[in-house]
Description:
By secondary structure, the chain is α/β, with parallel strands linked by helices. It has helices at residues 2-19, 24-33, 57-73, 86-92, 109-119, 133-141, 165-171, 182-190, 203-213, 218-224, 237-246, 265-274, 302-305, 326-329, 345-353, 362-374, 376-393, 396-408, and strands at residues 49-54, 78-83, 100-103, 123-127, 146-151, 176-179, 196-198, 228-235, 254-260, 280-281, 293-295, 309-314, 335-337, 356-358. The strands form two sheets. The chain has a seven-stranded parallel sheet, with helices on both faces.
Amino acid sequence: MRPFYTLGIQIYSLAVRLAALWNPKAKQWIEGRKNWQKQLPEISANDHYIWFHASSLGEFEQGRPLIESIKTAFPSYKILLTFFSPSGYEIRKNYELADKIMYLPADTCRNARLLVDHFKFKTVFFIKYEFWFNYINALSKVGIPLYFIAVRFRADQHFFKGYGSWFRKHLRQVEHFFAQDENSKKLLSNIGINEVTVNGDPRFDRVAEIAKQAAKFPEVEKFIGNRKALIAGSSWPPDEQLLIPFLADLPADYCLIIAPHDVSKSHIKQIEISLPEKAQLYSNFANPIASRILIIDKIGILSQLYQYARIAYIGGGFGKAIHNIQEAVTFGVPVLIGPNHKQFNEAVDLVNLGGAFSISNAAELKNQLLKLINDEQYHQQAASVCKKYVDDQLGATAKMMDYLLLRWR
């Protein structure tokens, strides 16, 4: 089975290489991995590396609280941080607590052996869904403990199918799973894996810290003025196509802040063209205009901008899946989301509790927004649900550290 799996990895890499001829993100994926062995740091006998691997930015933020806790407890340990996706690497390639940041070399047997042999890791953490079977096998062969953090399992995954024995074998090579929910623990128990701790999602610890330390944005405050803000975060074109018609019903004491997932000049231009009125660009505050629409054409600040939101719309729910809602709800902001949110525990929970609201079309969007805008008691109840939910989820990082300290000291 391993040769077929490795062949699949090689075919995927070839497909990305071909896509790189016209796709900028694919080109970054290829260029970032070119001559990766030459990027490796020299290792001395006194170097003790811990490896964290994340697919992209969201997964990194789930692992970040643990990185910071480990660096506080063990400042001499060095951190290797790898990413699968350019969208994670490009944003966090200068993360100050990591001693080396690089793309994950393609999961071939040779690459896995070379990376593991070079660093001789003390411990390795893979975040959420990063099941790279040649790396898992290479780590197991030399006795390096591998932990999965913020992991979630579903019954429809190949691990739990009749044909999944080869994949299950690799799960048994993992030292311990820190799972988000009881269902994941049950699924693992059903296949004989009991090294599992249910401790929730450590990203709640991260977003709560962001909320405490959120910077102020004077330009945004000036733009909002005495109005209330509806913030559309990480929006995609289907989300924007729903929101823009709602401008006709947006009360005069509200403004709309759009922070699209894609901040390329071409996409920003598309948004501007589709708007019924002129918008203020965040990058052009030097030339302010009277507007009730602000477009955030910069990455990296959205999580802190939610402090100004009265209501948030989180994009992605009409595509593959919604983006992170935790950043908004940690400020006690009710959120609207599209229908594709079922794989996120916090979204499902908050919809059931009344802090988040799932909408499927423009009519539902309008009705729900107007209810939150016009019914103060309804809004306050939703906001309270969000805040309490976040408070109840805190502490995942401390639980992981308690477990690790018992084994490391």
